[in-house]
From TrEMBL:
Domain K+ potassium transporter C-terminal, residue spans: 501-658
Catalytic function, reaction form: K(+)(in) + H(+)(in) = K(+)(out) + H(+)(out)
Entry's localization field: Cell membrane; Membrane
Gene designation: kup
InterPro entries, sorted: K+_transporter, K_trans_C, K_trans_N, Kup
Provenance organism: Parolsenella catena
Membrane topology: Multi-pass membrane protein
GO cellular component: plasma membrane
One annotated GO molecular function: symporter activity
Subcellular location, principal: membrane
Keywords assigned: Cell membrane, Ion transport, Membrane, Potassium, Potassium transport, Symport, Transmembrane, Transmembrane helix, Transport
Protein's UniProt name: Probable potassium transport system protein Kup
The organism's place on the tree of life at top rank: Bacteria
Task performed by this protein: Transport of potassium into the cell. Likely operates as a K(+):H(+) symporter.
Length: 760
């Protein structure tokens, strides 16, 4: 018989609107501060990199400038606007974006789709580690262009590295405040930044209105394939790609700010970016014959197009913008990891929700790993020029994988075949060209990003395959078939009570089945007698403050399958909630009062003690499993230990917890059958031989023989007391082993509990 109860419901439930976070001026400000930092700083270096790769200022003729600007504008339009804002953001999973959210929508369309999802996710996370390091270092080095800051920093790169590390520490330390808080702090700065980009670009574009011809995409195509104009060839795309590196982060951050706020803010951001690029292009055309400027090392039109009096403000503002640019990748990484956990690609981690909005999350372990990794990258590369060599390579891989998944979504889920095929052909060709051009960065630092991505992919692969191997061994048994045995165990006076309430945590959400390992632990492993057994499953809801539970009693007053449903902001301290549940069961006469005989309190509680049993599986040495799969399982358990204990996740640090180990694999390799062999005739008289040996030993000890056994030579170096102690020990061993009870060989039982205990 099943009984359902509700312990507590919130007075008011504020459900997120169907479209996610609603449109508002405040959230648009947050969006500007959180989402566009990476793509918003691209004008600082994109045209500079293209000009440097083409041979410098003097080579930048009108056709070159217009062609390069056309490539920038249409790359940003096609990839950021069309692919991500107009197409990818339609493919949301409960208002969450990112490559894993996209995979969760299409995973039923083919098992192979997990591979591009894992590759793309790993590459994006690797790029997220590199981006804060390169942007902050670049900003700090840019301060040297101002005399005041150059007097402080000088040419000492060690000072730059130190300042960069301090800023990174402050940036990652403030993540615990939450996306909303950070966005409100960064939003006004980024608003000023984009207004600055648009205004400075608009002021300079009057120098040569021909730059508006760059809006024609044919000018970009002509420039790309004309060797007389484009000296870098297709490799120029590696520099052009810098204008759109924040597009994937924009998609990943959708859950933090809501798609409506991105739709509303992106046109403003894009117009400001295009105006700034056009202004830089007009300045280049107006000054491409200036020999003095052409001789300037590391000439950057972004700063040079400004009057010197304004340049100080530009550099300081750029420094803040570059720091904020890291935020888009950091918050995007939280979203990616959160989705990966749900897909069993990453281990369970503690997730904090600093606000009432589910999409705005903070994962302490991920934050700390990125923190340490970013500092490691800064210490390894030292300078921004070395870091930039690795920048952008990984994100091209992510974009290719996203295109594959979007094609599947359009063709299989949305059934828009006429759109899906051209979409795949066009964007695969375009992004593969960017990927090919970015490969030139591999030997100049790109290998670091590849190594980071490979390590992250390995973690995902190990966790995914390890989970699949575990599930092949999972067997769920109907609880009602074991009620009689559990009742008999509960009434067995020959066994002491282990606890008043014995609690098992389980991932199984079914109301009437249990994992075989739990029943095995109670009945077979070591019979566990308790007054009541609780099998507890925790579910996290999409609402912030849910407090609910349901119970199946199986028609008993001692057996309870409990599901607790908690809001995503609720602290999962299950011991406190379980105490409330038992109190309610006692009050409703569904369980007998569990009075304490002894207590420090005047009024004794009717709720007894709790013991929590956490079952951990270990692969048996005799399990029928390949060496590769065994190593996968061991690697998964190593990762799990690094990510923390379930006792910490569920607030059981101060509770009575039993960790019990059970074999992962029930099926073992075929064992050899032992054959009985009768002892030979000569061994039957072993007792007589021993007596004879003892007589000889006594003769030697008394001096009747001049020879002594070799093993006694060291003993004779000590006094008579040591000799006596040795002799007493020899007699004790003879009495207890030779001819004693332990000489009887107990039968060896294979594949039974004793073997498992030995393995543990």
């Amino acid at each position: 018989m099943g009984v359902s109860q509700t312990a507590e419901r919130t007075a008011s439930k504020k459900r997120s609107p169907k479209g996610g976070i609603p449109l508002s001026a405040a959230m648009i400000l947050v969006t500007l501060g959180v989402v566009y930092g990476d793509i918003g700083t691209s004008p600082m270096y994109t045209l500079k990199a293209i000009m440097s790769g083409n041979g410098g200022l003097t080579t930048m003729s009108q056709d070159v400038v217009i062609g390069a600007l056309s490539l920038i504008i249409w790359t940003m339009t096609l990839i950021t606007t069309v692919k991500y804002v107009l197409v990818a953001m339609k493919a949301d999973n409960h208002n969450e974006g990112g490559i894993f959210a996209l995979y969760s929508l299409v995973k039923r369309c083919g098992k192979w789709l997990i591979i591009p999802a894992m590759i793309g996710g790993a590459a994006l996370l690797a790029d997220g580690i590199l981006t804060p390091a390169v942007t902050v270092t670049t900003a700090i080095e840019g301060l040297r262009t101002i005399d005041f800051f150059h007097a402080i920093i000088g040419d000492n790169q060690g000072i730059v590295v130190l300042i960069t590390i301090v800023i990174l520490c402050a940036l990652f330390a403030m993540q615990r405040a939450g996306t909303s808080t950070i966005g409100k702090a960064f939003g006004p700065i980024m608003t000023v930044w984009f207004l600055y980009l648009g205004i400075t670009g608009l002021v300079n574009v009057g120098a040569d209105l021909n730059v508006f011809r760059a809006l024609n995409p044919l000018r970009g195509i002509m420039f790309l394939f004309n060797g007389n104009l484009n000296h870098a060839g297709l490799m120029v795309l590696g520099n052009v790609f810098l204008c759109t590196t924040g597009a994937e982060a924009l998609y990943s951050d959708m859950g933090h700010v809501g798609k409506a706020n991105i739709y509303a803010s992106w046109p403003f951001v894009k117009v400001c970016l295009i105006l700034n690029y056009l202004g830089q292009g007009a300045w280049i055309l107006a000054n491409n014959g200036n020999a003095a400027l052409a001789a300037t090392p590391e000439l950057n039109p972004f700063f040079q197009m400004l009057p010197e009096a304004v340049r100080v403000f530009a550099v300081v503002l750029s420094t803040f913008a570059a720091i904020i640019a890291s935020q888009a990748l950091i918050t995007g990484s939280y979203s990616i990891i959160s989705e990966a956990i749900r897909l069993n690609l990453m281990p369970h981690m503690r997730i904090a929700y600093p606000s009432e909005t589910k999409g705005q999350i903070y994962i302490p372990l991920v934050n700390n790993i990125m923190w340490v990794s970013c500092i490691g990258v800064v210490l390894f590369f030292q300078t921004s020029s070395h870091m930039e060599a690795a920048y952008g390579l990984a994100i091209t891989v992510t974009m290719l994988m996203t295109t594959l998944l979007l094609f599947t979504y359009l063709s299989k889920i949305r059934r828009k075949h006429a759109l899906a095929v051209p979409f795949l052909a066009f964007f695969m060709l375009l992004e593969f060209a960017f990927f090919f051009s970015s490969l030139t960065k591999f030997m100049h630092g790109g290998y670091v990003t590849v190594i980071l991505a490979a390590l992250i992919f390995a973690v995902m692969y190990v966790w995914r395959r390890g989970t699949a191997i575990e599930r092949t061994q999972s067997v769920y048994l109907p609880v009602d078939q074991y009620v009689d045995q559990l009742a008999e165990l509960r009434a067995d006076d020959e066994l002491p009570y282990l606890a008043d309430n014995l609690v098992f945590l389980t991932n199984d959400s079914s109301p009437d089945h249990l994992d075989r390992d739990i029943l095995y632990s109670i009945l077979d492993k070591r019979p566990k007698r308790a007054r009541a057994y609780f099998f507890l499953n925790i579910q996290v809801t999409d609402e912030p403050n849910t407090h609910e539970f349901s119970i199946n009693t199986f028609g008993t007053n001692f057996l309870f399958k409990v599901q607790i449903r908690l809001g995503f902001r609720v602290n999962q301290r299950v011991n406190e909630y379980l105490y409330q549940i038992v109190e309610k069961l006692v009050a409703d006469n569904m369980i007998a009062p569990q009075h304490h005989k002894y207590s420090i309190y005047k009024k004794k509680s009717s709720v007894g003690d709790f013991r929590f049993c956490l079952i951990r599986k270990v692969p048996s040495s005799s399990a029928d499993i390949s060496a590769f799969d065994r190593n996968i399982i061991m690697a998964k358990y190593l990762i799990r230990r690094f990510c923390g204990s379930p006792a910490h996740w569920y607030g059981l640090e101060n509770s009575s917890v039993i960790f019990e180990y059970v074999p992962l694999f029930a099926r073992s390799k075929r064992q050899h059958v032992l054959q009985y062999v009768e002892l030979p005739e000569s061994v039957r008289h072993v007792h007589d031989e021993i007596e004879s040996a003892n007589a000889t030993y006594v003769e030697h000890a008394s001096g009747a023989s001049a020879d002594k056994p070799d093993q006694d030579e060291d003993i004779d170096l000590f006094d008579a007391a040591v000799r006596k102690a040795h002799d007493d020990e020899a007699r004790a061993v003879e009495d207890s082993v030779i001819g004693g009870d332990t000489a009887v060989f107990h039968p060896i039982v294979l594949n039974e509990e004793s073997d498992e205990d030995d393995e543990q």
